[in-house]
Design a protein that fits this description.
58% helix; 114 residues; mainly alpha
Length: 114
């Protein structure tokens, strides 16, 4: 995994949680923890979807990336995902219309524009 991936991740985390430690030492910690995702960067995006209200450690973030890797038959927490999508939309961030639609359906939120 390249350091630029960690730098972009830190910008997203700073966006959500405010101040973030961008030190080289912290970047190395996160790079080391997330190196197993070097060929599966989409899992990093899942980790961002699974963020909680409290800023994660590198290890906690890695666990959030693995939520979608549950064995077959187990459900991913779709309501949690849907809440994140709706929060992003309400904050004025760019959300694809199909994602917004699915999020509303998951939470049974109706909008006359749909």
């Amino acid at each position: 995994m390249e350091m630029r991936v960690i730098e972009k991740l830190f910008l997203r985390l700073e966006e959500k949680y405010g101040e973030w430690d961008h030190s080289e030492q912290n970047k190395v910690v996160w790079l080391t923890e997330l190196k197993s995702f070097a060929h599966n960067l989409h899992l990093i995006k899942l980790g961002l979807i699974n963020l909680t209200d409290k800023a994660p450690t590198a290890k906690q973030f890695k666990e959030g990336c693995n939520i979608s890797l549950k064995p077959r038959g187990e459900m991913v927490d779709h309501k949690r995902w849907a809440k994140v999508i709706l929060q992003r939309h309400e904050a004025g961030k760019d959300v694809k219309p199909i994602s917004l639609r699915f999020a509303r359906e998951a939470l049974k939120v109706h909008d006359a524009r749909l």
